[in-house]
Amino acid sequence: MPRTRPDQTVILLAAILAGASYLLASALPLSQVASTTWKGAGVALLALYASQRARDIDGWLLVAVMAFGALGDMLIELRGLVAGAIAFLIGHLFAIALYLRNRRPSPSLSQRLLAAVLVPATGAMAPGVALYALGLSLMAATAWLSRFPRYRVGLGAVLFVISDLLIFARAGPLSEAPWIGAAIWTLYFTGQVLVCLGVSGAMRQRRA
Fold first, then answer.
1. The domain containing residue 141 runs over which residues?
2. Residue 129 domain-assigned?
3. How many CB atoms lie within 10 A of CB 37?
4. Please, are residues 94 and 61 in contact by the beta-carbon 8 Å criterion?
5. pLDDT of residue 1
6. In sequence order, what are the beta bridge partners of 146?
7. Which of 56, 150, 131, 143 is nearest to 96 (CA)?
8. Phi/psi at 53 (nearest 5 deg)?
9. Do the beta carbons of residue 192 and residue 46 sit within 8 Å?
10. Mean model confidence pLDDT for the chain
11. Which of 129, 157, 165, 183 lies in the 20 to 30 Å Cα band around 55?
């Protein structure tokens, strides 16, 4: 079985440390530049990790997914939710292309049903951002139907969806929930890590 090189392991550990520790940022007296850089660092390092393992177009599509995720993280802080959402939407389009290139030959009925439910369910819970919700839900549906490990890549994509739905809920019924910020970030970053590890690991095994 192929092994991760030591330098790649260091990058991955740094990414996880940066992403996990960002939960502390709100409790520290940081400048906007420092806070924004910290927020983008975790997924940016995942993009660097993916680039170290990329050997074909699928690998570089994964790099694009992570890179636009990091850009979205930072644009939300610098330019607002709409600018960040545009970057994330571009990342979702790259992800959809990646997953469609790696479709599972014979998905089970339960897999097809979950994928079919994701699109209308996400749209129903986020009617004010229909275009973004469509891209988000298609990303998750195609991830679930891909041949990548479902309990890494598929689950990671679903966690991303849940995180975004909580963002929409924070603007409404959950606006006063004290836990929601931590939940949004934890679900989002965990989802990105699972996708990055699941896709890059599967492609490395396939090459071996």
1. 6-207
2. yes
3. 15
4. yes
5. 43
6. 103
7. 143
8. -110, -5
9. yes
10. 93
11. 157
Q: How far apart are CA 169 and CA 165, in angstroms?
A: 6
* Within-domain flag for 198: yes
Summarize pLDDT for 33-67 with one digit per residue, the tens. 999 999 999 999 999 999 999 999 999 999 999 99
CA nearest neighbour of 99 among 50, 152, 154, 45: 154
Q: Which run of H or E residues covers position 103? A: none
**β partners of residue 103:** 146
Give start and end residues of each alpha helix (H) in the chain: 6-21, 32-53, 57-79, 81-101, 109-125, 130-144, 155-170, 180-207
Q: Tokens representing 5? A: 């090189």
CB 140 within 8 A of CB 99: no
Query: Against a cut of 0.90, is the pTM above it?
Result: yes
Fill in the amino acid letter for 168: F
Taking the CA of residue 173 as centre, how many other CA atoms within 13 Å lie in the half-sphere pointing to its CB? 5
Note the pLDDT of residue 2.
52
Task: Decide if 8 contacts 204 (C-beta within 8 A).
Answer: no
List CB contacts of 123: < 8 A, sequence separation 6 or more. Answer: 130, 133, 134, 137
* Structural domain count, the chain: 1
Residue 1 lies in a domain: no
